Amino acid sequence: MSGDNPVPTGHGARLTVDLAALVANWRTLAAHAPRAECGAVVKADAYGCGLSAVAPALWRAGCRTFFVAHLSEGIAARRLLPEAAIYVLNGLPPDSVEAFRAHGLRPVLGDRNELFEWAAAADGAVPAAPHPAALHVDTGMNRLGLPVAEALALAGDPVIARAGIDLVMSHLVSAEQPDDPLNARQAADFRRVRAAFPGLRASLANSSGTCLADAARHDLLRPGYALFGGNPEPGRPNPMRPVVRLEATILQVRTVAAGESCGYNARWQAPAPRRLATLSLGYADGYPRSASNSGHALVGGVPCPIVGLISMDLIILDVTEAPDARRGGTATLIGDSLDIDSVGRAAGTIGYEILTGLGSRYVRTYVE
Ligand SMILES: *Cc1c(COP(=O)(O)O)cnc(C)c1O
């Protein structure tokens, strides 16, 4: 994946997704808990990386359990993964039972209404075979899931078997901050919950959760972000391999005199004579406008600051220090020293938002 390989003519930028790195990351995370199964969260079109390439690659590597957010994402995943267990995190919307059953999807039931609706549908089925589902227990997020007390009150209730519950899960509030006392509190509450449902599998850990002590690991890991190269342990060296690389074509290079500005509303002024390069990529491609005057791109390995406001289709770089900058060359916006976490920081957001915002206008290249 060299930065000198030009973007195909007619396109502004290329997004390269390294499926071998993705699979290596899945194996690294799986090794954090060798006695647990390692699933994969592939919601939001596999964090912007493309479900249709990502899901089969993980399946071929041995991943058997997948999580998406929406029923529609589950249906798309089912077409790619005829035999996988696919859980739908956002639960069971009204009147969706038939679609879930028809596609063999497993709702993550997030309140009593969803639980009883799913169980009632199983009662009416001929033959009366329940379709599997998960029970989501809320241990602190106050977002989705039954409160712990409500879940404990359901222990031993026949509705759990009638609904085909095969997994009990919860979600960590601050897993990427290992010192946050919330982690231990949630882990303790979740231990009580799983003890009340003997025989069910249990899942608590997202990417960062797989790096916490044993308390978070249980039977099934649910990493998403780290599969795609995000650092599950912020503040420490990133153990994950980078998965995405974003490169844009340099359209032209110009020299400006001291005092000249660039871009809309003249939000940058040259402190001295500067060389500027204009890239064929902008916020319409999913590169965040909030990185104006704060982000960087690499030209021939040299970090070059983004100057002025990012436009819809164009970004201006100060390439004074980059002798390789030339018309038809490329600049790397994500890749090498510019990992998704640092791009997120420069844009005042998180790497998750950078990934899931990746646009559809690039040429996309998948490498095995
Ligand atoms: C998105 C999500 C995950 C994956 O989280 P990452 O931080 O991306 O690893 C796991 N569990 C639930 C419930 C989620 O919503």
Explain how this protein is built.
It is elongated, with a radius of gyration of 23 Å. The protein has helices at 19-31, 43-47, 51-61, 71-80, 97-102, 112-124, 148-153, 158-162, 181-196, 340-346, 351-356, and strands at residues 13-18, 37-38, 40-41, 65-68, 85-88, 106-109, 133-138, 146-147, 165-169, 201-203, 220-221, 244-256, 274-279, 296-299, 302-305, 315-318, 330-334, 363-367. By secondary structure, the chain is of the alpha/beta class. The protein has 2 domains: 19-228, Alanine racemase (TIM Barrel, Alpha-Beta Barrel); 244-367, Lyase, Ornithine Decarboxylase, Chain A, domain 1 (Beta Barrel), CATH 2.40.37. The strands form 4 sheets. Strands 3, 4, 5, 6, 7, 8, 9 and 10 form an 8-stranded parallel beta sheet that branches.
